[in-house]
């Protein structure tokens, strides 16, 4: 007879030697594994049928192993702590909707009394059968326009952050806290360039509030979005940081955090929390072909929000530094034309007359590579860096000037509220008396600017662009004026040819041209044909 396992003495003996026997420790370990998978374990004796093999020793081992298994991590503790600081924001604009507007007529509305859309929104949306945040006054077509968004308190005395586009133009702002109480709020200040607004609720000094994060989120970090989507206040969604430094064409200071936590209409102005319970960003935009969440949302970084609200709180507006240059990115072609190893920095297309940069000696074609010793990656980073500094500050710019590095010191001016580009309405164009001279390898026909009416006196004017030519591919148009080629001023087609030939002799793959269109100028790198 085969000897029984010592730790399973209460079990019937195995009478068949072909059965493999396990030690108590191995069996307990196996039992703990399969128990974790939800599988019942039985022993089989030849005459007794299935019997439960879990002795008290085995049960103890299983319980010990399961206690060491890590439970899935949830967000309930974080949400419980931060959710009271989040508010729903409702605005009222005393704006009349014209009766003549077809979109506002009752007979054109999908929300007719008794309609399927009205029944749907009565059940899931607004009490009057219209979607929350999309009501436009009484059914007569006139009345106040209302909208909804989100926000969050940043101090116990009632200061709160939301989006500029949530409260823009509002005559009345109301906020509803997590406990259901409603308060009237005052707009302290707004900043359209970053879409940040600061509002204030008076009368209490014990509001629960959130802290803006000091750190920079990493791609892959958890993020919790809390807000008021579709008027459903107090909604929490979770995701991760998908990307950072996003430019979505919203403004000159775009530097958004991209998140994949579901964000919908009404979440605007609400916070995106990290796992420390701090606000990493303010939700402001979604990419949505359908109008709903597709997992791509954008948040304003906490660092940007901090700098803006500090100024809004102090003076109700934001002042930004200004050096007075028109800049553009350094592309690979432009970098090759300038002899740069990397396509980095900001290319000065044109310094503005009497601006700080012009007074300090910065010229068209210079590349700004660093501000106060910090490298400048691209043109947008330069705009954000300078815009984040206060007017009157002294800054040190590293500049590549005609292939030579130099340092320029200047004092920042204040960014004007509006900067007008004065366009020359008469771009000239092809002049009947002057056909121009061809530059066939580029696909351009050129004439001295002073020979074409309205083209000015400097440079050469483009009178014709060959279709599918290198120049056409780079966006040249009839009426453009070429001011410089490879850093040299040009006054006729011969100057252009000589500058191109010199660049080709230097084994350049492209030649850099400064082009004026209307009242603004830019640099264009045009590829050079070999031979």
TrEMBL record:
SMART domains, A to Z: PDZ
Residue numbers binding substrate: 165, 195, 266-268
Bilayer-spanning residue ranges: 27-45
Entry superkingdom: Bacteria
Transmembrane helix is among the record's keywords: yes
Keyword Membrane included in the entry's annotation: yes
Gene3D superfamilies: 2.30.42.10, 2.40.10.120
Pfam family, one: Trypsin_2
Keywords: Hydrolase, Membrane, Periplasm, Protease, Repeat, Serine protease, Signal, Stress response, Transmembrane, Transmembrane helix
Chain residue ranges for the region called Disordered: 99-118, 123-145
InterPro entries: PDZ, PDZ_sf, Pept_S1C_Do, Peptidase_S1_PA, Peptidase_S1C
GO molecular function ontology, one term from the record: serine-type endopeptidase activity
The PDZ domain, residue ranges: 324-378, 434-518
Its EC number(s): 3.4.21.107
Enzyme class: hydrolase
Catalytic activity line of the entry: Acts on substrates that are at least partially unfolded. The cleavage site P1 residue is normally between a pair of hydrophobic residues, such as Val-|-Val
UniProt biased composition (Basic and acidic residues): 99-108
Cellular localization per UniProt: Periplasm
Active site: 165 (charge relay system), 195 (charge relay system), 268 (charge relay system)
GO BP annotation list: proteolysis
Family according to the record: Belongs to the peptidase S1C family.
NCBIfam families, per database record: degP_htrA_DO
Name recorded for this polypeptide: Probable periplasmic serine endoprotease DegP-like
Native species: Bradyrhizobium sediminis
């Amino acid at each position: 007879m085969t000897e029984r396992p010592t730790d399973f003495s209460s079990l019937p003996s195995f009478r068949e030697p072909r059965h493999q026997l396990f030690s108590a420790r191995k069996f307990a370990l196996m039992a703990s594994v399969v128990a974790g998978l939800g599988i019942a374990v039985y022993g089989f004796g030849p005459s007794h049928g299935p019997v439960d093999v879990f002795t008290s020793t085995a049960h103890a081992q299983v319980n010990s192993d399961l206690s060491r298994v890590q439970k899935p991590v949830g967000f309930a503790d974080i949400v419980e702590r931060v959710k009271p600081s989040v508010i729903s924001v409702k605005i009222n604009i005393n704006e009349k909707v014209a009766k003549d507007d077809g979109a506002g007529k009752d007979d054109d509305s999908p929300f007719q009394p008794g309609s399927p859309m009205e029944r749907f929104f009565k059940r899931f949306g607004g009490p009057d059968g219209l979607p929350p945040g999309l009501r436009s006054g009484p059914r007569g077509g006139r009345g106040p326009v209302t909208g909804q968004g989100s926000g969050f308190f940043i101090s116990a005395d009632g200061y709160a952050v939301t989006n500029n586009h949530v409260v823009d133009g509002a005559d009345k702002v109301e906020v509803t806290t997590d406990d259901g109480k409603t308060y009237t709020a005052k707009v302290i200040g707004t900043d359209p360039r970053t879409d940040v607004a600061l509002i204030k609720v008076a009368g209490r000094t014990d509001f629960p509030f959130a802290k803006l994060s000091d750190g920079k989120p990493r791609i892959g970090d958890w993020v919790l979005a809390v807000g008021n989507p579709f008027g459903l206040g107090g909604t929490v969604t979770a995701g991760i940081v998908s990307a950072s430094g996003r430019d979505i064409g919203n403004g000159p200071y775009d530097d958004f955090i991209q998140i994949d936590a579901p964000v919908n209409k009404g979440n605007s102005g609400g916070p995106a929390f990290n796992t420390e319970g701090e606000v990493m960003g303010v939700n402001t935009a979604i990419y949505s072909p359908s109008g709903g969440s597709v997992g791509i949302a954008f948040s304003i970084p906490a660092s940007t929000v901090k700098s803006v609200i500090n100024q809004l709180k102090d003076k109700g507006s934001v002042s930004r530094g200004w050096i007075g240059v028109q800049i553009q990115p350094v592309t690979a072609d432009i970098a090759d034309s300038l002899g740069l190893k990397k396509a980095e920095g900001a290319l000065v297309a044109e310094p503005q007359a009497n601006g700080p940069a012009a007074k300090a000696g910065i010229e068209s074609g210079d590349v700004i590579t660093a501000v106060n010793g910090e490298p400048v990656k691209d043109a947008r980073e330069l705009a954000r860096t300078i815009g984040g500094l206060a007017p009157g500050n002294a800054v040190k710019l590293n500049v590549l000037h005609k292939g030579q590095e130099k340092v320029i010191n200047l004092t920042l001016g204040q960014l004007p509220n509006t900067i007008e580009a004065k366009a020359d309405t008469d771009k000239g164009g092809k002049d009947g008396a002057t056909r121009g001279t061809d530059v066939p390898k580029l696909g351009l026909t050129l004439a001295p600017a002073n020979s074409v009416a309205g083209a000015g006196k400097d440079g050469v004017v483009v009178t014709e662009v060959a279709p599918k030519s290198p120049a056409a591919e780079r966006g040249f148009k009839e009426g453009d004026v070429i001011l410089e080629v490879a850093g040299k001023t040009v006054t006729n087609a011969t100057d252009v040819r000589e500058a191109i030939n010199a660049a080709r002799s230097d084994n350049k793959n492209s030649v850099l041209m400064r082009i004026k269109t209307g009242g603004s100028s830019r640099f264009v790198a045009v590829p050079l044909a070999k031979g």
